[in-house]
Design a protein that fits this description.
324 residues; alpha/beta; six-stranded mixed beta sheet; 14 strands
């Protein structure tokens, strides 16, 4: 598959913000505004999409309305990047309405995480365009500002500049927390992944990459608010689909807020024990507890971009730029 990389951003460029999944809810309005302010302080202009301020169920409009907002942002020559205000629950309903031909002819960074995994994988599948799994406006930039964590704010700004405004490979990214070596080894390959259950929701649809795309890939994933058995189901799904036979490595981000099983008499396994038991027949290296996922600073993980990692050194290295 031919990879399409968007143009790098420059100070003064306009970033379009869309409510591509969850609406801007009143309880998060202040965070959203703080996130916008942080982006403007970095020297960028902002254009809000028509979905900002709209509410329909758990989305910011009907699937067609949300798709029209995203499509218009790709068509707008003055908008140089598109950023999700946050994740949510409804991205999968929008995929059939996106104008993939328009996106192909107007590549630009599409930024966000969590439910945005559906957009990143669908657009990559249909167009080959790199998707930017990284912090969004409300819970990324706005969350950093809310926590008054100067380090988080600085890291978000630095990652944004390094991955979106520079054409040199980002190189080695140092751990921000305690990364864990779960299976020893080193490897390299192109990144594929995102939120685990969103990724698995797309399997078997026209919006999931052909299995050949996973040849030599490094599968990265994170998860939040699910039970252990749901993670197990997803990993078995990837196993039965033949994907785990093809990848060269696995990077696991933060796994947050695991739900207890309903049956109180069931003894649940440790999450590491469970995952390694499912993956016991595979030789690829695994590094876990990495700095991407929910309620953490997100190291950008651009879909389709080549990286290498070494579990012994706790080292992740980006071998190429995600923009041109």
């Amino acid at each position: 598959m031919k990879i399409i990389k968007p143009q790098r951003l420059n100070k003064g460029d306009t970033i379009g913000i869309v409510a591509s999944s969850l609406p801007v809810l009143p309880e998060f309005k202040d965070q959203y505004e703080r996130g916008k302010k942080l982006i403007e302080e970095m020297g960028f202009k902002i254009k809000e999409g028509k979905t900002i301020g709209k509410v329909r169920w758990w989305a910011a409009g009907t699937p067609i309305e949300v798709a029209e907002d995203i499509n218009s942002m790709f068509a707008d020559k003055s908008v140089k990047a598109i950023m999700a205000q946050t994740g949510g629950y409804s991205a999968i309903s929008v995929l059939e309405h996106l104008d993939y031909e328009r996106i192909t002819h107007n590549p630009k960074p599409f930024i966000g995480m969590s439910d945005m995994t559906a957009y990143h994988l669908a657009i990559f599948t249909k167009t080959g365009m790199v998707g930017f799994h990284m912090d969004d406006v409300t819970f990324g930039f706005g969350g950093a500002a809310k926590k008054d964590a100067e380090n988080w704010v600085d890291l978000d700004k630095e990652f944004f500049r390094k991955f979106l405004t520079q054409t040199d490979p980002p190189g080695i990214i140092k751990p921000l927390s305690e990364w864990e070596e779960w299976k020893k080894g080193k490897t390299e390959g192109h990144l594929m992944g995102g939120n685990l259950h969103i990724l698995c929701n797309l399997a078997g649809t026209p919006y999931f990459p052909p299995i050949e795309v996973f040849d030599g890939a490094i599968l990265f994933w994170e998860e939040v608010g699910v039970a252990r058995y749901q993670i197990a189901r997803c990993l078995y799904q990837l196993k039965y689909a033949g994907i785990l036979d093809r990848i060269s490595g696995m990077l696991i981000g933060k796994i947050k807020y695991l739900k207890p099983i309903r049956d109180q008499e069931v003894e649940e396994p440790d999450i590491k024990e469970m995952i390694l038991d499912i993956l016991k027949d595979y030789k690829f290296p695994i590094m876990a507890n990495m700095d991407f996922g929910h309620f953490t600073v997100n190291i950008p993980m651009p879909i389709g971009v080549k990286v290498s990692f070494d579990t012994s050194k706790k080292e992740l290295k980006f071998l190429e730029s995600s923009v041109i």
